[in-house]
Write a structure and sequence with these properties.
Helix content: 25-40%
Low-confidence stretches: none
Distance between the termini: 24 Å
CATH architecture of the largest domain: Alpha-Beta Barrel
Largest sheet: 4 strands, mixed
Catalytic activity: (S)-dihydroorotate + H2O = N-carbamoyl-L-aspartate + H(+)
Number of helices: 13
CATH class of the largest domain: Alpha Beta
CATH superfamily of the largest domain: Metal-dependent hydrolases
CATH topology of the largest domain: TIM Barrel
Family: Belongs to the metallo-dependent hydrolases superfamily. DHOase family. Class I DHOase subfamily.
Strand content: 15-25%
Protein name: Dihydroorotase
Keywords: Hydrolase, Metal-binding, Pyrimidine biosynthesis, Zinc
Shape: globular
Radius of gyration: 21 Å
Strand order of the largest sheet: 3-2-1-4
Structural class: alpha/beta
Function: Catalyzes the reversible cyclization of carbamoyl aspartate to dihydroorotate.
Bound molecules: N-carbamoyl-L-aspartate, zinc ion
Number of strands: 19
Number of domains: 2
Length: 428
């Protein structure tokens, strides 16, 4: 039996227009994309889903997320995290290794893949740690981690402080054609700060996290990437200086790619309403000048992809206040509506630009088979309602994490249904 998605608006890259199509899915693959102008196809005996003129896109890909399992299931687990992802239109997500235990052995990588097979509803690609326990002291066993299914190495949550350790990691990763993904943060430049250096910190008498703490690692690592030839990917770029360094490195043909999060594209430190930990994440919200720089970086291709850095924490943990609460905000269920409303509905970006940065660009950067809507492709598909305005209500998030600064925002672009491997895994 096949499934037909009828009357879907499909973005056409070549013309820059959306066109009404019928899509037939068979055996998990897109078997046919037919012009709706040619009339209704024969759907006899097949399952049908009427998209009713809603956007139909390749499923979104999120290459930076925290699913918290194993070890922090009170924040999120693979079941809740993948459901939250599906509700955000994501069909493939790559999860960070700052779990408990840290994902630093083949056994834990396999655990994540097994749990995903048992309880997950979207594709989950695990990253493994660069160093044992993410302590920066000793490299993990890259070969066995790759063999177990890890797709790259990262100590996300902390920066690799020692340059030689990072260089060794890059050499090893390069020798097995694996990417190194870096959380860029120099600990000697950040001690006990919760927000960026800037107006909010100054107004509240707080110490701030300086931009250099991020950019100094970006600069160091670009030099190491050049020396080792590794594919180096920069996590959650938040500063004007990092954008500048990455732009320069790309001009030299160094194999560097980078990601940016919705919150760093939309919010600055000047938007923080008060000492509320829902506005606390790492890297922190930066100054308006940095926000402008990351937007320009994404627009000119310096920054390749959009990721959420979905980082759920419990209400209890976030209630500890700005100084003591953990860093991180949830991201899956607001990412597309935020970006669509702020950048596409306002005419700043085309719909195609946003879709590309969330589908085919992450697929290109990480060499994934998904991310395109075409005949013969895997049927990972998202249906999105571009017309209905709705308010962000954290209490109704599927994620266990309700920690978001976007509660109450009125947005367009809400996902309505998500297909993974041709199967409807979520609908509103
Ligand atoms: N981004 C965050 O603020 N927090 C992340 C860690 C990280 O991405 O560095 C987390 O694990 O909670
Ligand atoms: Zn990080
Ligand atoms: Zn992260």
């Amino acid at each position: 039996m096949a499934t037909w998605i009828l009357n879907g608006l499909v973005w056409n890259e070549a013309t820059g227009e959306t066109e009404l199509k019928h899509i037939r899915i068979a055996e998990g693959i897109i078997a046919e994309i037919a012009d709706a102008s040619a009339g209704q196809p024969d759907t006899n005996g097949h399952e049908t889903v009427d998209a009713n003129g809603k956007l139909v896109s390749a499923g979104f890909i999120d290459m930076h997320v925290h699913l918290r399992e194993p070890g922090f299931e009170h924040k999120e687990d693979i079941a809740s995290g993948t459901r939250s992802a599906a509700a955000g239109g994501f069909t493939t997500i790559a999860c960070m290794p700052n779990t408990r235990p840290v994902t630093d052995t083949a056994e834990t990588v396999r655990f994540i893949l097994d749990r995903t097979a048992e309880t997950g509803i979207v594709n989950v690609l695990p990253y493994a740690a660069i160093t044992k326990n993410e302590l920066g002291r000793e490299l993990t066993d890259f070969a066995s981690l790759k063999e177990a299914g890890a797709i790259g190495f990262t100590d996300d949550g902390v920066g690799v402080q020692n340059a030689q350790m990072m260089k060794d990691a890059m050499n090893l990763a390069a020798s097995m054609d694996m990417p190194v993904i870096a959380h860029c943060e120099d600990d000697s430049l950040v001690v006990g700060a919760a927000v960026t250096e800037g107006k909010f910190a100054a107004a509240n008498g707080l110490k701030g996290i300086p931009n250099e703490s991020e950019a100094i690692h970006v600069g160091r690592d670009i030099l190491l990437a050049e020396a080792t030839g590794v594919h180096y990917h920069v996590c959650h770029v938040s500063t004007e200086q990092s954008v500048r360094l990455i732009r320069h490195a790309k001009q030299f043909g160094i194999k560097v790619t980078a990601e940016v999060c919705p919150h760093h594209l939309i919010l600055s430190d000047e938007d923080i309403p008060g000492m509320d930990a829902n506005w606390k994440m790492n890297p922190p919200l930066r100054t308006p000048r940095d926000v402008q720089a990351v937007i320009e970086g994404l627009e000119d291709g310096t920054l390749d992809i959009i990721v959420t850095d979905h980082a759920p924490h419990s209400a209890e943990e976030k209630a500890r206040g700005m100084m003591l609460a953990p860093f991180g905000i949830t991201g899956f269920e607001t990412a597309f509506p935020l970006l669509y409303t702020k950048f596409v509905r306002t005419g700043k970006w085309t719909l195609g630009f946003l879709l590309k940065r969330m589908t085919s660009d992450p697929a290109r950067v990480f060499r994934l088979a998904s991310g395109v809507l075409k005949v013969g492709a895997i049927a990972d598909i998202t249906i999105v309602d571009l017309e209905q305005e709705r308010e962000v209500n954290p209490d109704s998030f599927i994620s266990k994490g309700k920690n978001t600064p976007f509660g109450g925002w009125k947005l367009y672009g809400w996902p309505a249904a998500t297909f993974v491997n041709g199967k409807l895994v979520w609908s509103e």
